[in-house]
Amino acid sequence: MKKKYFTYIVFAVIALIFVGTFVYLYRKSRPKEIEYESHYTASKTLERSTVITGKIVPRHEVNIKPQISGIISHIYKEAGEQVQEGELIAKVKVIPEMSSLSAAQSRLRLAEINLKQAQINFDRLQDLFGKNLVSAEEYEQSAQALAQTKEERASAQENLELVRDGVSKSNVSSSSTLIRSTISGLILDIPIKVGNSVILSNAFNDGTTIATVANMNDLIFDGKIDETEVGRIREGMPTKITIGALQNLSFDAVLEYISPKATEVNGANQFQVKAAVRVAPDVKIRSGYSANAEIVLERAENVLTVPESAIHFEGDSSFVYVSLADSSTYEKRKVETGISDGINIEIKSGLESGDKVRGNQIYNEKKSND
Predict the structure, then answer these.
(1) Quick one: average pLDDT of 132-159?
(2) Considering 1, 65, 122, 268, which has the largest number of Cβ atoms within 10 A of its Cβ?
(3) By percentage, how much of the chain surpasses pLDDT 90?
(4) Per the confidence metrics, is the pTM higher than 0.70?
(5) What is the arithmetic mean of pLDDT over 17-46?
(6) Greatest CA separation found in the chain?
(7) Residue 62 above 90 pLDDT?
(8) What is the Cα–Cα distance from 233 to 257, expressed in whole angstroms?
(9) Rounded to the nearest 10 degrees, what angle do helices 98-130 and 136-165 cross at?
């Protein structure tokens, strides 16, 4: 009797498993019901813009270079300090060339010899002139010769000081060994140290940079735009600048320069653009900050819009599917579109305010009432 009940139980379990498997496979094989997102037309303000990557730099950035070669003996400023035009930044100690030094010393010795002889001649003629033994003309010529030799001696002495020290007693304030700022602004960098050798700028080399000074109150955005978009922008367009290092801050700017010539960057032609940035006095911006410039190419205010995903394109025509009164069927309707901001698109004709249009498909499994 027990075996008979056990057999019934086994058959019941097998039947239950069979029925459960059949129901599961039946549900999995049933077709999925397709649903659609629904959107209503709405009035919005649309903007189509382009974003340019670049950096913030000062408009005027000057490299201060020496007017004489030598070795840095003193540095009076540091990077980050403000400096006024004409203010002292560093001092150069001159290391003279031996040939130039020898020539200057020889010139001074010769000038001293000439001066000594001119003094002797003048003293003799002066004594004779006092006794009326020589003419006034001879006396005046002697005095003139003495004055000339004195001037030659002073010039030789100054030349020796310049060759040996880089500065003379007569031009200490304007000495070329004193490196002064040529503009007022912020010192961005001082790449040299005391003891470094420096050379002056000439036709054969750029010279050694003593310091870089810039006016940080006059900043510009410097970036590049692709050739596919450069034709849509023009000088004078308003621009919004965002800086990655300064979150939640944006700055107004005005596009003021578009390069007439492209440069190739990674195989693509790009054009340099510059925009004048307006910065509040209490905001500190560092030179070289990475930044993005957003330029509004088109703007349409209070226009009828739908999500761009609801638009279907066939050739040169645009269509939407408009929900009918029963909300379960849709009518294909041709529309004329305008600008798009990448999310919403302007509808110029074909729809009215409050129309319900079909969006993207939503896939759900059909629920069973069993």
Answers:
(1) 82
(2) 122
(3) 30
(4) no
(5) 71
(6) 175
(7) yes
(8) 10
(9) 160
> What is the CATH architecture of 98-165?
Orthogonal Bundle (1.10)
Q: What topology does CATH give the domain 61-94+172-214? A: OB fold (Dihydrolipoamide Acetyltransferase, E2P) (2.40.50)
Backbone angles phi, psi at 245, to 5 degrees: -75, -15
**CATH number listed for the domain at residues 33-45+300-364:** 2.40.420.20
Instruction: Answer for the pair 233, 225: CB distance below 8 angstroms, yes or no.
Output: yes
